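Morning F.,

Quick status update on the modeling queue. The single chain you submitted on Monday has been processed. Sequence for confirmation:
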Amino acid sequence: MKTPAVSIALFALAALLGAAGQFLYKSGADQAGGSITSYLLNARLLGGVVCYVAVMVLFVAAFKRGGSLTVLYPVYASTFIWAALIAWAAYGTPIKPANFGGMALLVGGMYLLGR
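Structure tokens below.
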């Protein structure tokens, strides 16, 4: 079965939202005081939850349009690349040569799994 381009695009968007959700969880945790209320009323943590709900909706929408798990889930693995780029932009976290190597392996693996 050939995976439709729209399903791949939906998973790519889900990967970006997944990385944004990770960033929001991290920055929300930095702001939280430790009490249940500081978690429940934390806009960044709630934004992270919204991102992850959107990821699940995009997964369902992509699967509804058809596609192979072996094509679509490797696309979602690009979340790790997006998260590294967001961490670099937001926190100045360095991306080292080994990180670039890992990213290249992820992209190569996504390509090979999608064939």
